[in-house]
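Annotated sample (chain length 438).
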Amino acid sequence: MAMGTRRKRERQQDLWIASKDVVETPANAFYDRLNQILDEHKFDAKVERLCSKFYKKSPYGRPSMAPGVYFRSLLIGYFEGLDSERGIAWRTADSLSLRKFLGYALDEGTPDHSTISRTRRLYWLETHKAIFRWVLKILDEEGLVSGRTVSIDATTLEANAALKSIVRRDNGQSYNDYLKELAKAAGIENPTREQLARLDRKRKKKGSNQEWMSPSDPDARITKMKDGRTHLAHKAEHAVDLTSGALLALTLQPANEGDTSTIHKTLEEAQAVAREINEAGVEEVVADKGYHSGAVLKEVHEQEIRSYIPEPDRGRRKWQGEGKAEEQKRTYENRRRVRGDRNKRLQKLRSELTERTFAHLYETGGLRRAHVRGHENVLKRLFVHAGAFNLGLWMRTLCGIGTPRSLQGRLAAVCAVFSTLWSLVYDAIAPIGTQAEF
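Output written by the structure step:
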């Protein structure tokens, strides 16, 4: 056999080529199955009905990007781990299987990133939330979610804004100009960057959210991330069904607010969803010790919900003041439940299932750092990501595979098994063949 070279392959491309002569790639089993499921539940008709109010009812003008294509593009962002809309546009243009998933032929151009961005700005936040609720409704019809026992936890997402660009809320002065004023007050006329940095390191409480803000993303807050770095960030809080691992509710709140102040909104969202699934709604809530406070336990009890929230070591407490007797009673009741065996099982499930949602949405899903600005725009991406996560749970029950990457891992494992078996068979047959030659 002669060796092929690149020079021999250099030739002028044909102007026309028949479609039957185009080399076809192997079908992507995951996206083909997902498209089949979406078609069975009339996904495109649903989203077109939801989005019809954003367009003029006229036969004239260039047709827009189809709503089903837009939401499928965001689903691709989750399944492929693409954090930006530019990445989604590039990936769909490059992949034949994703073109097929979106419904584009070889002679059609896939949507550009500017088209995806414009469509995101056009559709309301409630429209994206409706897609998330639609997936939850399907999970309910399939009996995959109960909504009775809910776990709540939060994480921080890095905002699409630079910390060095913050300005004062009162007069809009930049941080660098503010440091120069402090240097002049300290007797340094023309401070260098090193002198300004040295002066800044000595200051305390320099990153107050009451004094500073980002002009490009006012919703972002200065906060310390999980790895210890300080960034402008958002706080995403999840409510997860502990019977199935499905994501029931999702809220995005200021990153500088504590867990005890943000749990109320998330629990309210989870309760609204749970009551659509079962009449009783949420009956038990599980959280870590960061959510423990007398006021939280009191409010949870008023909603007829049992709490399983570990109590941090605060030492001996003095229950004095108005309303403290009620908080004391609820704290002692929660303490008794936490010491039981059921709490150990629930906390183990919380650690597994709730952390799994963070890993899938923000680590492998690619949204640990936001590439859009403002709570509304970030929430639009998060709601579709959360719907894709729940779709993955549904796909896993139907065909045993929840993401296209897990399919690749299984195929690699099967190939490895066959390779091992073939090598064993070959090693057993080879000596026999050698003897037969003699």
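Annotation: Residues 168 and 212 are 5 Å apart (CA to CA).
Annotation: The longest strand covers residues 230-241.
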